[in-house]
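INTERNAL AUDIT FORM
Audit reference: QA-55
Scope: verify that the stored structure record matches its stored sequence.
Auditor: D.O.
Record contents follow.
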Amino acid sequence: MLSIRAITRSIPRAVSRCSAPAVRRVSPALRQTSLLQSSWTRASTPRLAAAFSTSRIRPEKQGEVDEELVAKFESELQMEKEMRDSDDVPVNVKDYLDNGPFEIEDVPGKEEVVLTRQFGDEHIRIVFSVADLNSLDADADRFDERALEDEEDENVDDPSERGPIPANSAQSGGAQSKSTVNAGQTSDGNIAAAPEDSIAPADRPELSDEETAAEDEGEDEQEPSFPARVTVTITKPSTGPGALQLETVAQDGVIVIDNAYYFAEASLATADEGTPERKAAYAGPPFGNLDEDLQVLLERYLDERGVNTALALFVPDYIDYKEQREYLGWLENVRSFVEA
């Protein structure tokens, strides 16, 4: 009994002694495997992305006049559209574009308009700009301001409140105007009028006839068009590198030549006027200094190439038509910018 019990007790001890080293030897591999499994488990576990937005936060507007300005632009746009009869091209402009010899290059948003054509071996390029109409409006505004100031001075009753007396006025002893021809100065400094000054202008036969004729002539005359600068450049690419450039003005159906330039290089004709090469080149004398017969022949030279009365009538009309379109586009662009 004792031996059997001793054997039974010794078996677990022997087994534990035999298996312990094996377990200790295998344990590093098992430990490495477990590390790999744990890292694989962590890598394979899906991670949830952080919940945030990438959209840009739009700051609030700080301006207080924006809404009022946008409303004013919308009102101006509506008024301009109502004043326009239609969006169609004017009949006279369309007729020239359909039947004229030139092809037009008009880019929206650009001031300049370009007309081109081939005339034999010549390439003709004509340029005009909407800026001429805008500068004319600015000059008219300055003229109206000066006229208003003169009218205000005339309406002032107290002479001491009026502006300074010009040096050439009758009271200053200078040259006299027509209104003061018959006026004299008395010893006490007052202006004495001649007897004939008491007669109303309408009762004077020599004046009434002249005024009536002037009124009749004014009724027959039509409102003149504005002067538009037209630059004509003629090149011959197949025969030489030079260019002939003529600066003209189109008004009331007439083309008037101001200057005639010649450039040895055609690129100088289209270069900016401030370019050193262009400024250094001798372009030619003023057109008015040329012989009269030479002036007439140059005018006929342009007329044969389509720079004629028809073009002189077309250019101001097209400038007016383009300026209206550009102004509407400007109103819409600025309104959209302020409103955004």
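Auditor finding: record pair retrieved intact. Residues 18-30, 32-36, 165-189, 193-202 have pLDDT under 50 and may be disordered.
Action required: none
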